[in-house]
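Quick start: what a row looks like.
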Amino acid sequence: MKVNFNVPLNQPDGTPSKKTAANAITECLYAAGSLPGQNNMSREDKYAAYLLMEKIRNAKEEVEISVEEAAMIKDNASIGLYAGAYGQIHDILEKGK
């Protein structure tokens, strides 16, 4: 699926923030394996998170991601982000918002 993560996340009051979904996701993927509950993450999964982080970070517009990559984003973002930011990323992935 093609997804554009270069969109601003909204702040709690609904105004756009300076942080984009891509920024938030890359921060979560950068920390993959060190987030709570991830102490047993394999080397392979950590490297897959790194590759996905690089793909999203380097994308100027839409990026092609697999179902497995979308699941990795959701898994890491659900641990590394507040509910408000996670919900927006979830919507981007599910609804193309």
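That is the whole record. The helical segments are 21-30, 43-58, 67-80, 83-95. Residues 22 and 57 are 6 Å apart (CA to CA).
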